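stage 2 :: seqdesign
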């Protein structure tokens, strides 16, 4: 298992002062920036694109930017995000007709590739892509909105995904996204997650450092 990464979801940040708020979370001890991209088509909400990713880089954000694409189709926008400074790009299998091709494209563009599984999407899809991914992101809410409640069955799924990753002996991170709070983080980490996304828990608080420490468990 790799060292724990905390990735604040800027979906819950103050968009009127996104640079400062993102920097604030990183200075408070966060490791990555989780960047949620929604298109009002694959998910019923609309957010931000490559321009905003580039703006964060131009503002001086140097931490890894973990781009979570909830858009369909997805291929056309992958090179744009790579050029705008994305570090990891994760895609939902339901959002592309040719998953293997889309994952290859992400690496060809120089980024790490991730696959995102919705709460009801089985883990089987990992069987034939494990050599093409650097990260598995399990959704513990239905994608589209911040501030939803953690779906408990995600813990069982985390344990199964942990076993699959360990058996593969590949270096693949296991990330969880949705409803992660200080009070469930210990169970989530025990179930095998090594990368925690947290939006409302961090940005909804006035003590980012305190929440990030609590998520780490100390
Ligand atoms: C939901 C997004 C999440 C969301 C998490 O579609 O993928 O990243 O921002 O927000 P919280 O932590 O508030 O559940
Ligand atoms: Zn996300």
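stage 2 :: out
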């Amino acid at each position: 298992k790799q060292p724990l990464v905390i990735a604040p979801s800027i979906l819950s940040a103050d968009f009127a002062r996104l640079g400062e708020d993102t920097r604030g979370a990183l200075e408070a001890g966060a490791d990555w920036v989780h960047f949620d991209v929604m298109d009002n088509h694959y998910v019923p909400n609309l957010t931000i694109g490559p321009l905003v990713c580039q703006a964060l880089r131009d503002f001086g954000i140097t931490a890894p930017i973990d781009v979570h694409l909830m858009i369909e189709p997805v291929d056309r926008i992958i090179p744009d995000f790579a050029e705008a400074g994305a570090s990891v790009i994760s895609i939902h299998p339901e959002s592309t007709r040719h998953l293997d091709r889309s994952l290859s494209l992400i690496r060809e563009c120089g980024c790490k590739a991730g696959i995102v599984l919705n709460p009801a999407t089985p883990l089987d899809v990992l069987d034939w892509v494990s050599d093409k991914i650097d990260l598995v992101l399990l959704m513990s809410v239905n994608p589209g909105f911040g501030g939803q409640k953690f779906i408990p069955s995600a813990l069982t799924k985390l344990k199964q995904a942990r076993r699959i990753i360990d058996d593969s002996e590949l270096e693949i991170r296991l990330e969880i996204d949705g409803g992660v709070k200080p009070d469930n983080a210990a169970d989530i980490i025990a179930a095998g997650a090594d990368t925690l996304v947290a939006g409302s828990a961090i940005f909804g608080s006035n003590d980012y450092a305190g929440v990030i420490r609590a998520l780490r468990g100390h």
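stage 3 :: structure notes
- The first strand starts at residue 5 and ends at 8.
- The chain has a mean pLDDT of 98.
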